[in-house]
Input
Amino acid sequence: MIEAVGLTKRYGAKTAVYNLSFQVRPGTVTGFLGPNGSGKSTTMRMILGLDRPTSGHVTIGGHPFRQLPNAPRQVGALLDAKAVHGGRSARSHLLSLAQLAGIPAQRVDEVLGVVGLQDVAKRRSKGFSLGMGQRLGIAAALLGDPQVLLFDEPVNGLDPEGILWVRNLMKKLASEGRTVFVSSHLMSEMALTADHLIVIGRGQLLADMSVKDFISANSADFARVRTPQTEPQQREKLTAALTEAGGQVMSEPDGALRVTGLALPRISDLAHDADVRLWELSPHQASLEEAYMRMTQGAVDYRSTEDQLAHLQQPMPPHLQPQPAAAVVPDVPQQGWYAPPPPGQNPYATPSAPAKNAEDAQ
Output
């Protein structure tokens, strides 16, 4: 399990992450969402010991990453698929990582098969496409058969077949009881892959809940109602009846009506009482993308002057609005970030040895 407590990171006068606390539990795929510049990459770097928090702390299985012995066997990560020596073949790249972590060479061939690169294992990685590079990065993350996995935009550059493969892989890893933490901007993919969401904006926590609860809490459900197009008077009669009953009615571009404030059975009864024929009466719930836009619209730094999503730009509830970071954030004394295992407790000597150190994981 990954646990962050009061995590704060400042770069000079800029606060990238402020007082961030969350847990990523095993057995589920947890999506990590937020606009550009929200602090997602900084948070993942702090989880992996690449950046030190200004205050607060983050642990994996109860220990800071740099204190995990033989880290590649406990934690696998894909942060930058381009972090590969272009002159090395795919197999040589993975073999060097395996040797540093004491992983058998046989495992290299196994993960090459898992990601589908077995036929190009001897090709230099500088000739790889973006999608092939992503597959190689995922292979490196899986190399130590870790229980905790972090992926930053894992489907970047993949074709539809590759995206489906990654989706199924994430679900399979979680079903095996592993902790899977995935950062992505593809809302449609997160809706199909993630079970739980952690959403941040401007370095602060906005939501920590299941995908279903997130959509329900940040969507404006409505009913679509359509009357015969050849009888505009029926549409007007229905609009008047719905409005009188307390509903809010808006016209859709395709001629349908968007009705809020009334349940579907009530809409049907009102149409029947008004002697209006209905061609359509259907419920609508926001997609994850729409719910995400509502949640984060106040935390977006860059917005086009021709924003076509104006209908989503509704004021955020006060309790969801990001609060400005305090002018001074008290520092928490840093604990030792690396300590070799005590004599006689070397995990290399056990068959289930987890991992080594932070540098070997990269």
Observations:
- The longest helix spans residues 160-175.
- The two ends are 20 Å apart (CA to CA).
- Residues 67 and 339 are 6 Å apart (CA to CA).
